[in-house]
Amino acid sequence: MQRFALIGAGFIGTVHAANLAADPDVDFAVVYDIDTARATALASKYGARAVTSLGEVFDPAAIDAVFIGSSTDTHAEHLRAAADAGLAVMVEKPIAPSLAEAHEVVAYVEKSGVPANLDFNRRYDRDHAALQRVVASGGVGDVELVQMSSRGPSLPPVEYLKVSGGQMRDQTVHFFDLLRWITAQDPVSVAVTGSALVDPSIASFGDVDTSVATLTLPSGALVQIDSVRRTGYGYDERIEVMGSTGLVESRRQRSGNVAVYQGDGILLDPLHAGWFERVQPTYAAALRAFVAALEADTPVPAPLRDGLAAQAIAEAATLALQSGLTETIRYRNLDWRPPRRPREPHRQ
Amino acid sequence: MQRFALIGAGFIGTVHAANLAADPDVDFAVVYDIDTARATALASKYGARAVTSLGEVFDPAAIDAVFIGSSTDTHAEHLRAAADAGLAVMVEKPIAPSLAEAHEVVAYVEKSGVPANLDFNRRYDRDHAALQRVVASGGVGDVELVQMSSRGPSLPPVEYLKVSGGQMRDQTVHFFDLLRWITAQDPVSVAVTGSALVDPSIASFGDVDTSVATLTLPSGALVQIDSVRRTGYGYDERIEVMGSTGLVESRRQRSGNVAVYQGDGILLDPLHAGWFERVQPTYAAALRAFVAALEADTPVPAPLRDGLAAQAIAEAATLALQSGLTETIRYRNLDWRPPRRPREPHRQ
Amino acid sequence: MQRFALIGAGFIGTVHAANLAADPDVDFAVVYDIDTARATALASKYGARAVTSLGEVFDPAAIDAVFIGSSTDTHAEHLRAAADAGLAVMVEKPIAPSLAEAHEVVAYVEKSGVPANLDFNRRYDRDHAALQRVVASGGVGDVELVQMSSRGPSLPPVEYLKVSGGQMRDQTVHFFDLLRWITAQDPVSVAVTGSALVDPSIASFGDVDTSVATLTLPSGALVQIDSVRRTGYGYDERIEVMGSTGLVESRRQRSGNVAVYQGDGILLDPLHAGWFERVQPTYAAALRAFVAALEADTPVPAPLRDGLAAQAIAEAATLALQSGLTETIRYRNLDWRPPRRPREPHRQ
Amino acid sequence: MQRFALIGAGFIGTVHAANLAADPDVDFAVVYDIDTARATALASKYGARAVTSLGEVFDPAAIDAVFIGSSTDTHAEHLRAAADAGLAVMVEKPIAPSLAEAHEVVAYVEKSGVPANLDFNRRYDRDHAALQRVVASGGVGDVELVQMSSRGPSLPPVEYLKVSGGQMRDQTVHFFDLLRWITAQDPVSVAVTGSALVDPSIASFGDVDTSVATLTLPSGALVQIDSVRRTGYGYDERIEVMGSTGLVESRRQRSGNVAVYQGDGILLDPLHAGWFERVQPTYAAALRAFVAALEADTPVPAPLRDGLAAQAIAEAATLALQSGLTETIRYRNLDWRPPRRPREPHRQ
């Protein structure tokens, strides 16, 4: 049984709270939020205790693990505190707003030796996970072409976009991680073309709302990722991996499985209205995997370092969008090893 | 090369003519129709000769095979003439309006020994044929449940329905044949429930426009066939066969493969507007199979006797609709043998 | 906030317990089970109190509503106790093993005036519910043909089947309720044909494992329900309703949305392995609707009487299976009214 | 009625011959091929006349229109001959192996004023055409993102590839035309990344077998086209167009519509085995449109100039593949106008 403290009682914090309460190996002990009332309300719903000081969070006597679900600019600080207290820690992406700072934090936490895990929840999407298993087991042969669509239903507020770091760092970064995880390869280069089609004012601060990225894998395989901020037809996420012997596709998910037949066509249920409808179940599964690793004393499923790699790709992609050139992705200082499984040399 | 005469230059005759002209092993020689102008127009389009007497059709010196595509009440007479002339013959369903007369004609033709084939074109539907192969090869194990939907888009004229013999004889009969062909079993009993929902006036002459039939196969397997005269959403034909190890389905066919995604749903192309859009390719394939049998001097694929069996089921179904009881299907006088392959005794 | 006692801590009881704990308007107070250890374990997981006497369940001072999730033969007794104590009550199907006893219990409970609700959870299937809304809103016009498939993946133990009351009462009864709910009509007659194909020994106690039922609605519309105990390919549940202007289908649900393309075909994820995978979310939704009615002081969504109607159809269907005849369904003594919305006279 | 001469009796010539024979407004008069025996065999099958001199093809007294279906290096010569003879002409793609020569030929033919039409048959794909109509009618709003997949089942012989001009000119060019036709925009720039994954020896002559192209439209909309020589799972062609209000997709086409349900998955029919299975019906439709324009004396549907534009894009794409840079597409000397409909300025 792992005694958990949760930092952050906002929207996503409430999701984590419900999952912590339901997990059979978790004792959901403590909630902290800078908004004390919010912490109290959330804690009381699940029989946890609201605390008002971080000292009660990072307390090895009462807590085994901390879940950091607070705002991005606090992640680094809380990660260091967990390392100092010797507590296991799970943290929302990203590790830190800047890659340089993220590097420092990861080095610090790794030195401490505490189990530290990123919440790469999309890896736990039922269908993406099945696709990854097909690819990893050789079900489509050697990977040759990967296509990913990341398309949100509606434009976030421009005020949010201004401070988001840009589409590559804010949106596409999730798919850079999925790409590494699915192919077990680190892409070597990236080119990006983008436009501000939905709201041209986005261009005024150097960002885009519609973009296509092309990446190359060490094996020569090619990758296309399209990122769209506003579809008009719902949340559209899709992955396909073509290999030397077949293709596997994690298809668009509809919100239901009803069909109405009329003379002018057959109307199926639309895609999910928003991203949360699709990804909700992934949070509990990601937590489950972390807790299981703690219970079994095995390596965490998504070490912080994986986040550095995704972030490095996002940095190169941001540069490529500005330069109009194909940019090499630099994982330097990472002392990098392939993420999971050895690759055979490409067949001749 | 088989020299063919075609009887009938109406709508379906023009379909047969195009297929006769395109078949590589057919010399499309002669067209006959009681409407001479119609025969002439059709013949000239394909370089055939229009004739005005049946003597020029049933002429062994000039003709090897006759395709009877004229009206139902003439089939028997033309079949006998082909038998007398020693010509191979392919005929549209049914053999004759009454089962008794059909029996007589079949006996007459069989005695002559000429190759005589019914145009059971639906057996050549691309998807139904694939389903039949799956079933015949044991791909779903022993058949346990069969479901068939036969649904036309719009009500035929009531004047037509009055003389059609009723829904079982006119519409469902095609599926009685498909059932025998797919399962290689002759159903033993049938019950039918029906209503005149589309046009209550149909009830005044004892017919229905919407019905469900339940049949039992010798193995104990169950069959459901629904027959609908007017769907309002296009031509809807579907077959599924559940066996002891799996299920195979010949799905509804859409008229295209385009999808439009909007916020309120995903609109697929509708089903075919009419039956002809779905079945058109089957006519050429059915002809091809007959011609191939003639060329190879092998048994014809759908001997007339198969038509008697389907007609016998339709008679019992018509009786069942009237009686409200489960009726035994009587194939007597047919000296019947299972149509194609031996059945093992049902496993214990 | 409704204080709930739960009776029954078996498999389905644990499902109800999780839902009671998660429902925002429920105070999950008490668990009772004849197996005290089981009750204690379940109660402790959710911070509820295990009790050892029914007096602590039916205690108006501490409890507002009782959820009866114990074995079928105890439902009647607990329903009467809830009525006596003036407590709201939600009960698993069926009300009682025999229709006669069910009648008595319903009369008793109705006289008491307590809110009493059957757990017709399948009505809360996401897709079936959407289909029902399409039908109720006239989206397919007047109902003309209904088809339902109820197919379990594997044969239950024969020992269970022997005491189950037969396929109609045990399995098909759920679809008799769905039929009434979807069409807002009470069927007038039923005919059933069945076979013991999976395990012929089932025939020795008068039951079947594969059956097709044909029902007629007051409007003349026709209904087909097939019930299968063992598919070999997973849990297969499907409903389609054809009306005068279109068709709506609640499709087979697959366990995932992944496709693998190979040269010999495209492999999609299979259907759910078992019934529970499909219906799990329906239990929470059914509970939610009951609690919402209690909170709003409005009529319960599925009054006990609805269960009598489904049970009456199952009785007639059982008789029809034995007699081989079309049986009239007798709702007598029910002082019956159409379940939900007025019907216009059938259009001429 | 248009009297046609066909040049070329090879594989695709036999397809054209069958379509010429079946078209109601065509008098299929003459066949020419450098292989005289081949011409004779094809002509005799359809009652046409085989000729041995091109003088009998380009003979205004006997012929109204010429269909050029011979090898690519002869197209220019035959086009000039048709212009000289004042005959209408339909020609297979491309106009000439080099863009410069194609420019000259088009100028020559345009000066003559004869109706001259390219066989852009893929525009007549049933589903692509429906997609184009949806886009053109504003059914998805302003185009923002286009994705096309062009994937053949198996690698053509390396000997063929060596002289093919490269993947962009040989394969992707068809989709450059579809792109212009669907969006009614001429792309302004193109970047291409490619690899020789299937057969590394292809790299030795500067070609690739797997590539992704990114194009930008004048409106800022983005385009992705992937081109694959060998899939391992059949012929895979797919187009989707995302606009400001929705998305339209011309889906992968399967070779049949049968599904087999087993415990481990649902097996659908594979994609078509080859490209011809998908595109066969488009040839007759493309011919039909040309003949209809001749009969009605209206502009031809696909003037030669459209071929120049597609070829200009392919040249820029070939350059981009070599340079690794985004290349501007130069339509110079074409006195270019948007192909079909005016565009409103992009909305603010």
From TrEMBL, chains A, B, C, D:
This is Inositol 2-dehydrogenase. Belongs to the Gfo/Idh/MocA family. Gene3D superfamilies: Dihydrodipicolinate Reductase, domain 2, NAD(P)-binding Rossmann-like Domain. It comes from Frondihabitans sucicola. SUPFAM superfamilies: Glyceraldehyde-3-phosphate dehydrogenase-like, C-terminal domain, NAD(P)-binding Rossmann-fold domains. The keyword Oxidoreductase applies. Residues 3-115 form the Gfo/Idh/MocA-like oxidoreductase N-terminal domain. Keywords: NAD, Oxidoreductase, Signal. Residues 129-248 form the GFO/IDH/MocA-like oxidoreductase domain. The keyword Oxidoreductase applies. Residues 1-17 form the signal peptide.
